[in-house]
Amino acid sequence: MTLTLQKRGRDRISIMAEILGIGLEGVVKTNIMYRANLSFLQVNNWLDFLLDLRLIEVIKTKGSTIYKTTPKGVMFLQTYENLRDVLKVQTYERSKPQVKEDVMNKDRFLFSAINSALDELKQDVASLDRRIGILERRIAQEGKCPACGREIMSDFRLCPYCGESLMIPVGKESTKKEMK
Question: Which domains are seen in the chain, by residue range?
Answer without folding.
Answer: 2-92 (1.10.10.10), 126-180 (no CATH)
